[in-house]
Write a structure and sequence with these properties.
The structure holds 2 protein chains of 2 kinds. By secondary structure, chain A is mostly beta strands. Chain A contains no helices and 11 strands. The termini of chain A are far apart. The chains are: A mainly beta, B mainly beta.
Chain lengths: ~110, ~120
Amino acid sequence: SQQGEEDPQALSIQEGENATMNCSYKTSINNLQWYRQNSGRGLVHLILIRSNEREKHSGRLRVTLDTSKKSSSLLITASRAADTASYFCATDQAGTALIFGKGTTLSVSS
Amino acid sequence: GAVVSQHPSWVICKSGTSVKIECRSLDFQATTMFWYRQFPKQSLMLMATSNEGSKATYEQGVEKDKFLINHASLTLSTLTVTSAHPEDSSFYICSARDGLRSNEKLFFGSGTQLSVL
């Protein structure tokens, strides 16, 4: 089953620009998490935001969560070529498995 | 932090053979592990939940007789793809939750790329 829908599906930007990815989900959640995946590799956990939180920062990452709209956004500021990857949101409903969204493929060119 | 080790990282096999993938929690006990599958350019799809000492719970559309899951100990779950066919070629990744340290974060293995010829 898939919970989240990300948009855009693909995003191409220049180094130094900001990248914003959005995620929508369908059911109530305990928390929402964002992951990065480089091509053909495992997942890297980026950030977790709980259902009672609205915004969280980690380095160049900023995540927002709007539970009334069942949506979240991930902002990467001052992007670098190394940020090129696929980004997935994943929702945790009841402390069991994470359900992943479809993902956004980010390409940052120098 | 908690570590999940997955082995092998890649495997190539002939059609009709079986392939076993291991997932180990190295420094914590995992009563529950999760198996995901990812086709190229797609997202991770939950296949099954592996429970220590009991039968796995499979997601709708996942054949339990084709994807055998064994979770015989608190640190090891295995996924066996039986009679593999080219359409089973995919990236398989396991994850586990360290309930003692954090019930929120899932720790992921590095994944297994399966190619069936």
